[in-house]
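Quick one: co-fold with 1-O-phosphono-alpha-D-glucopyranose.
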Amino acid sequence: MADQGLRRVIVPAAGLGTRFLPATKAIPKEMLPIVDKPTLQYIVEEAVAAGVKDVVLVNGRGKSSIEDHFDVGFELETTLSERKKTSDVDMLRAISKMVNLVSVRQKHPLGLGHAVLCGKPVIGNEPFGVMLGDDMVDSEVPAILQLWKAFQKHQQAVIALMEVPASETHLYGIAAGEKIDERTIRITHIVEKPKSNPPSNLAVIGRYVLPPRIFDYLETQERGVGGEIQLTDSLAKLQQSEGLLGYRFDGIRHDAGDKFGYLKANIAYALKRPELKAQLLKYFKEVLEAKA
Ligand code: G1P
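Sure, here it is.
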């Protein structure tokens, strides 16, 4: 089948962000900045770099600032134009033109599987991506595009995997399977947040390329871990019926949903910025010397 490209991704963004309270009392966690860009913009940029045309944002209450961020900021642009801040105006215009954002509401916080199901009316009958905002992947080839290529090659659902320490397997979906090549495995077992006896130390990271058939399973999915409708449980059913691949992507993953992970992401992305790198390294040196 000719590769038409990955056209649509679902980005669940209806969580309450309780791990970042009080910062997230009035601001969606997806809008918390990494250096000077909202975390969600990095996700959208990854999608756009992969050729995605429509980002389906699964929104909750109080999240309209996300839509505003990707909309035209008319007043701000006018004021900045009057002040001759052309590069800022260009940057803001680029954000508003970046992608076609389609919002759907998740009216009840029933879990990730339910959030993905909320995107069904927009996705239609074609393969799509799912990108979780907490997982930022810094890579040469966008992580979601790496998965799409594997999907095209094998004509099977693909999910992103990464090795994690044994002490962390209870925090993730965990998959095990048979090796196809250096990066790809045919999954034989997948379980959400195993309390004991994880099948491996390969954790599911928030990038998925799925066939529309997944919606059939999500529609009837009973609640799982935490009383929530888990995407992983429906993936297990998909694995049983038509197979599921795991792909160990190439890139550095940051967990922006965790306080320490968020701080590290800020540092890692700041170190990529020439105007900040030297100052930051100098500051680290000062801190270390003060500790010595
Ligand atoms: C979700 C998924 C889990 C996956 C994780 C990756 O969990 O349910 O399978 O391993 O994202 O970040 P959450 O972290 O939202 O609880």
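If it helps, The mean pLDDT is 94.
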